[in-house]
TrEMBL record, chains A, B, C, D:
Keywords: Isomerase, Manganese, Metal-binding. It comes from Mumia zhuanghuii. This is L-rhamnose isomerase. It comes from the Bacteria. Transmembrane segments: none annotated. The gene is rhaI. GO terms for molecular function: L-rhamnose isomerase activity; metal ion binding. Residues 66-227 form the Xylose isomerase-like TIM barrel domain. The keyword Cell membrane does not apply.
Length: 387, 387, 387, 387
């Protein structure tokens, strides 16, 4: 069995990017509940993200969403973030909230609407130039609701063309990361529904085009760690959008629904060279805190990723490989589960304290007064949400 | 094979209740797209529902949703509807959009919040008294998002108590209809997730408490017609919320995703004595026209139900029973599918014309100028939606 | 946080029934792989079951399946088992392998075939009388493959009648336990597909008719712990068939696919009064060791149930209830997960040793020579399987 | 609306390959029911396949499965088939029934077992040379049942290497077709679980390596017609294994579960250039007639494909494209469904009679005496099945 001491330095490689929108309000089509202390501005979102990093040491970057986080001066925003102790991360485009995009954006039959959507991505690349962000993440809400409504294949061809135009605009240091999603908001077909589609689309673009795997965007029963292994094997796993789900794209706190699945995913990331300094796979969160407090929700999320990473690093891979090669099904499974069953919380608390972090980040946050402060100060204005 | 002439009179028994909210805007958590001509008031919703009935002869009642359709004078509203040629139907309660209900309503741990939710249902019963509605339909958006968040079993007990209090308030002519839903907006557990829960809850109440089956509220792969047969056998199928889905609760036009499933459902309704004058099962729609035009969307919906009802009535049940009893699997299936494969559209057009209705209701609507008129007239104000 | 010492005595209440068929060969429709040491007789199966109990102290009874375990003298078989240190448990009937049952057994349209199936259950009750078994477990493989093939509702009525006839034959100390299953071997409809159907069928019979919940027999995404809570609330959770699954009825080792789900299920059992001396819910396994060694597979299974029971017993229910009542979503979830994340293996090893059991039952079994012995001795004859 | 006359010649292009194993017995892991008249030899299977073609004109080839259809002289077998009026089609390999393959074949950690599996494929290619078959179809039953049991990624690499070795052995006229499957018989991970994996594996081999799409091998809710469109777009849709399902890989008669889905699939095949003389996509059946008669089951299957092909050919694609480009969601859907709702059975009967075929192939078969004859003659011997 691998010891915690052996994995200590590898844990230090972990960086998780938090989404600015996790600090704003979110909900379902039925209701968005507000909550006291919710940010009204991008700066307040960044301040909250910085708080998460301050207490956990795990979240050095915050991802932005355009236009939700649109500002006049991105260089100033970057400095603001750096002053708070974090950086700006991935830029997320949005082609699903403009009336023109009701029936499609990058795939629309109308060339003018496609160009509008492409131009929006150009604007996002301009933002990236100003913020120093590496990744442009594209999630397409496109698809159709009724059979016959759209030419599925024609849309695929137009998508390829639109993506190529966007990709050409990127600098050599920038990457395009394409997210797939099984369904929602489209209910019959989705233009990028699965990893196969995302892969074939980005493979046609070039080396700096990669796939984003959102853990909630699969059909029921899908073996997600297999896809992780496959995309790493193909050199195309650009990033994760971590969250968890019981049913659809529930966007719950990562690790909350099935911690063992998260462990298995992280094991394959490590095994496949996607973890830490080994690789270039970005770890991001994409979650909705519909009913729970948002900053504690984010703290819990990054801690869950860290705890399951620790357990995955603890797998005795030499013994595992030996058992696998001998065909000892039960022993191999036991070695694997031994690591999962190991309670790493005490060791992690010590590890944090060695690094000047609070041993229990959640307690430290709750005791810090930050939550009370923002609830008292952030009065008036419009709470941030998905618009 | 049964002939169309044989089923003509049975088709005349069909009545479908349309939901007022189908005429307002709806969408996903990502975006609600508006559309020209959308009603601003309850009266405009009723006018649109009346138009659907005028062109199809199938939709003599419109269901209301409180508080979305709240007015000062329900008797006046009823007269307005009758002047338009339709009646007011089921009253739907809403305990999912008030901030107090974030963590529950009829199941909440706080007795004051439970009472508030009960009082809302009492108010709905007052509306029913004024509108002459028979059914109080309760869909509970309640549940939890995280394991441990709630005491699943305690909530079930509180639900039973709250429902009993509401049920007592009903008159002998009124019914309580409890809807179940697999998930959404709650993502870990739903307080009434399946027909078994709805059934055991209403069975504890009394004869006038029944189950509402929404065709989109099941786990993937669920055999819905089995549940229809079972609830009719148990005397507890109060009503349908018809719609269709490919994935989750997509709320697409009924029959759009799997017309053969709709046919099978309607066959079991007829076989089980739930159709027309045989029974008391209400046929309602519950749909969202997120991207398509709303009135045509509703026309298509009621026509789909009618077409599949006609096909289901055409099943040669004597021959089917004989094949079933002989154990001739392929012959029984063939007899069943023969009815499904029969194109009833020409016969239905003639049937409508005999009754003074347009043979092609959709064409008649599109040619009528109604759509252009409402698009021109309904300018300004706030388009109706889910609030 | 509850301490291990606090739960020590409650752990001693745990009894798990193992299935005789887990020691024989099993497989898929594609292939049944044999393995050395597989029992050829019921006695050898019982000997293997006794070995599991000897090393774990958890499995004091073995369930039989008729006719797979048919013998001339059940009283002698019972003595044989008792000599080995275990008892005979639930009797499982089989109405799915006789040619007459191709299209149904208790639901068949032909009264003679129904009577044959009823008579088989009478024979099982005779076995129960001889073995002293309390429970008759009925899993019906019945249903249909094609729409129209069968009269779904008529079958439900015939099922009720057949079950009533069987139920009447039971003594007051005996119970009928009805299992439900979503699908397989029938692929269109199953006569007892869900807990609602099993519940309404047994509720019509009487107090000694109960539901068996097989953890692998649900639609994708089903919240199984909710059903556990509901059936306990209704007083109808007779027994569990434990196993685990990723896709369908995979019949994998319990806890292997989603240990957190097993934890949640066990928490609801305990909370609902179904655990140990509190209740009458039987804990059984129903699994297939298609590729792994069978006795170690069973040892792993009962240990998994024990480990998750320990974690579930560790939940600080007072603190949990307080957090739930305050509506502190994250704290309630954290208290719940704290117990799940607690590594109980060291404490359990000590607990076992205190009771004269090996601290590590798996290692003790592997070191005992039993496996080598049966592999050497059980040569020739026909290995037991599903026939 | 397109007329039937317009599609008459295109219907004549249809050729469906039937599987030899559909004529033998099949079942579930619980039971294989036998039936009178079941073939005992390959020749009898071919005779039955020829009967299907004689009555329908749709099934000019029969696929073989090695070793189930192993004979000494394949050239003689080919002549036998030709004498019966049909040809020999795809050769299916089998690496899931030998004890050596319990934990893998082309992916096994042991190079000797991999070589054995490769050699089996070489033997299949030898059969192809003798039979003149174009396609080698590889379905891999490989995977694992427990997390940790296998190195998912290492297996993927070994699979690539094994497939490359097999592919090299093919002549320029031969093709390798790789089938994917979501799960079963492996229950945790499958080595080729999805189209993305099959695609990336065959793309690495070369132009004559293609994907086989079995309509039953997907996760719940998967939009299969999207995958059809995508694989045709990528030039990699080698063949179909048609069947239908409600739950898992049920292998029911194609079109029996969701005829509208079959229609949508066929529409995309036609739209994407995969139909008839336009393309090289082979239409095959892969089904199990567990409870229904086998030859009538096959006749129903090929007729279902023909009926849905006719409906798909009837789509007014010019009007559809216009509606799609105008963004008229409801009109586009209506045009699409109009074709699906058209009852083509009378026209198809006339079309068949023009070609010297029986207007109603099922009735003609049942009246022909063939079934009675084989039931009388095929007495004794061992009925063919999956071994």
């Amino acid at each position: 069995m691998t010891n915690f001491a052996d994995i200590s330095s590898r844990l230090a490689e972990q960086e998780i990017e938090v989404p600015s929108w996790a600090y704003g309000n979110s909900g379902t089509r039925f209701k968005v509940f507000g909550s006291p202390g919710t940010p009204r501005t991008v700066e307040e979102k960044i301040a909250d993200a910085a708080a998460v990093h301050r207490f956990t040491g795990l979240a050095p970057r915050v991802a932005l969403h355009i236009p939700w986080d649109e500002v006049d001066d991105y260089a100033a925003l970057r400095r603001y973030a750096e002053d708070q102790g974090i950086g700006l991360g991935t830029i997320n485009s949005n082609t699903f909230q403009d009336d023109d995009y009701k029936l499609g954006a990058l795939t629309h039959t109308d060339a003018k609407i496609r160009q509008k959507a492409i131009d929006h991505h150009f604007a996002c690349i301009d933002v990236m130039d100003a913020t120093g962000s590496r990744d442009l993440k594209i999630w397409l809400a496109e698809g159709s609701n009724y059979p016959g409504q759209a030419d599925i294949r024609g849309r695929q061809d137009r998508l390829a063309e639109s993506l190529a135009t966007i990709y050409e605009r990127l600098s050599d240091e920038q990457r395009l990361v394409l997210e797939y999603k099984f369904f929602e908001p489209a209910f019959y077909h989705t233009d990028v529904p699965d990893w196969g589609t995302a892969y074939t689309q980005v493979a046609a673009l070039g080396d700096n085009a990669l796939v984003c795997l959102d853990t909630g965007h699969h059909a029921p029963g899908t073996n997600i760690e297999f896809i992780v292994a496959q995309l790493l094997r193909l050199g195309k796993l650009g990033s994760f959008d971590f969250n968890s789900r019981f049913y659809a794209d529930d966007d719950l706190i990562v690790g909350a629904a099935d911690p063992y699945q998260l462990f298995r995913i992280l094991f394959e990331v490590i095994r496949g060279g996607g973890y830490g300094t080994d690789g270039d796979t970005a770890f991001m969160l994409d979650q909705c805190h519909n009913i729970e407090k948002k900053i504690p929700g984010q703290i819990r999320s990054v801690l869950n990723v860290q705890e399951m990473t620790a357990r995955a690093l603890l797998v005795d891979t030499a013994a595992l490989t030996a058992a696998q090669e001998e065909g000892d099904v039960l022993l191999a499974n036991e070695i694997f589960m031994d690591a999962f069953y190991t309670d790493v919380r005490t060791d992690l608390a010590a590890w944090r304290e060695e690094r000047g972090l609070p041993g229990n980040p959640m307690q430290a946050y709750l005791a810090s007064g930050y939550q009370e402060q923002i609830e008292a100060e952030r009065v008036g204005g419009t709470q941030a949400g998905w618009s």
